[in-house]
Please model this.
Amino acid sequence: MLKTSNIQSAMISNRLIIGTVAFGVSFGLSLVLSWDFNKAFLTGVITVPATYLAALFVDKRRRYHEMLVLDSLQRRIKELEAMKFRMVSEIDQFEAHSALLYAESSKLQNQIAERRSQRDSLNRELSTFVKEKNQLEAEINHRQTEIKNLDKNKIELNNSCSVLTAEKRRLEMNCNISRSEITQLQTRITELLQENQELESNLILLNRLKPQLEEKLYELRVKIQDLEVQETEQNKLLLEKNSQSKNIEANLNSLQTKLTEQETQLKQLQQQIILLQNERDQLQSQVWELLEQMETLNLELIPHNPQEDDVDLFPFSDLLDSLTEKPENLPEEWTKLLDLLPGYEIQVLKAIIEQENPNSALKKIAEQNITMPHLLIDSINERANDTIGELIIDPYSDPQKIYQEHMINAKKMISAYEATIAKQTTAK
Model:
């Protein structure tokens, strides 16, 4: 509230100063030129509302330009918010995709656990088969030792038979007994031979089944290896997705930081606009004070000479006539713009056209005319917009440039201005 009251009081005081200065200048000039007090007072009174209207028009133009800048900044903020919303939606999609991948990996892990349990059961069955095989081999060895013992017994029996044949006569009484024993032994031998054949057939079957079991074991190992490779690939994919999500989070954080930086820049721009407004008001007050001091100095230094009343009061009519002449090959609206533009603004256009980096020249022209470079460019664009209906200088380029479609007419206008200046110098 204090700030607004101070600004309003400053504006009222500035308006009062402008009104008093305009009234004093117009009153003094008309009084010096006509020496009619009533007429001078009337012109002073007429000048005051005219100056107020001009100040109001300039203030409205400035406010319109500031609103354009603020609208562009607000559009940029809305675009950044939309970008943020899109990034958040994409992050949600990535999170859903990662959840799906995590579910698939859990399914694969369950399948791997089932395969491992099957492998363990097969290993257990193989171990039982190996145990049975070892037992059968032990039984076969035992049977082979028995057969060898029987062979030895057979040899011994043959020897005993030879002995018995020699002792036949002596052992005829025991012949029946020995024959019965021999028949029992033969039956036993046939039984052992049959058991041996069965064991050999079992060994053959086991030898036949062994490669099939080994092939099944190899296939199971290959499947287990494939599953382990798939598991590693899935883990790699999960790691890549996690890294991508981390990168997206980092990008989102960087965008949020950029957004905060742009908001701070917007606040700084608003503060700079307020400071520039204050500087402009101070410069305007200083300009008006300088003009008032120059007028008072001119009035004090120039003595009144009654013989000068007969002299032409406006000796520059020839200059105005030469300036109002239309240059050749220049459109009518550009001639109007040439009439409206002062000399230092045409020098600004010339510097922008001829120099690659006209910032130093623009700064020098602005210092000579007690203003700032961007205010000169705004003034030229405002006059061009009023006459041509378009801007001729790009206000956002650095360094400043004239739009390409207006370059030819601008050069023609500068050459026409230089021609009129040359005519004036030759006429002098």
